[in-house]
Amino acid sequence: MTASAADYLACWVGGRHEDLPENVSGTVRLDIRDDGSTDHWFLTIGDQQVGVSRSAEEADLVVAGDREVFDRLVAEGTHIGAALVRNDVTAQGDLRLLMLLRRLFPGPPDARHPREVAVRAVATHRTSESHGGERQ
């Protein structure tokens, strides 16, 4: 397994995220349980910026689960929505913020962005047309 969720949150989540909507803001607390203790991570989201701190203060959305689940979010690209449906995590509060978490955690290792796939397909189509590959 690669980095733990705690390492990922501490090193990679904070800062600017251009794929976050500019008009969405809120606070998210991640409660990561491990062997009877709970680590609290507090995310402040606004203007495509994410602030990360260690705090148990109230948040617009609280997501709780075991360390192993959060580690899978990082290492395997598990979708946070799928983890919620499987009851691997619980969420209380503004569930619209839950989908923002998907943009903060890495996707599956073999995933490609749909825009990149579409651009590659258009480029391949244009290349085949320019080399006489047009249909008649």
Automatic annotation (TrEMBL):
Q: Which InterPro entries match?
A: SCP2_sterol-bd_dom, SCP2_sterol-bd_dom_sf
Q: Which residues form the SCP2 domain?
A: 21-105
- Domain of life of the native organism: Bacteria
Protein name listed in UniProt: SCP2 sterol-binding domain-containing protein
